[in-house]
Design brief:
single chain; about 90 residues; mainly alpha; about 10% strand
């Protein structure tokens, strides 16, 4: 019974790798090169997907004005000078 289950899972893994082979040019299942190529594709794919998600999130839920509980940053910088005095710059 367990061997049938593991054979089914292995078949699904092979089907997934063959799908990735068709989706990402240059990727072929098997070998250490496929790990490197797959990692590079995952990095690029994740960066693009994350950027699209962030853009959609900001377009749908983002707000231009600060609401209650939000942090507003000061527009001036306060620096302690070498003479010990405190100076602010706009």
């Amino acid at each position: 019974m367990a061997s049938k289950r593991s054979a089914g899972v292995a078949a699904q893994g092979v089907a997934f790798l063959e799908l990735m082979d068709g989706l990402y040019p240059g990727y072929a299942p098997g070998g250490f090169g496929s790990v490197i190529m797959g990692s590079l594709y995952a990095l690029v794919d994740g960066a693009i997907g994350g950027a699209v998600f962030a853009w959609l999130y900001n377009r749908i839920l983002g707000s231009k004005d600060a609401g209650p509980g939000s942090i507003e940053w000061a527009s001036t910088a306060v620096v302690q000078g070498s003479d010990g005095g405190v100076h602010s710059f706009p």
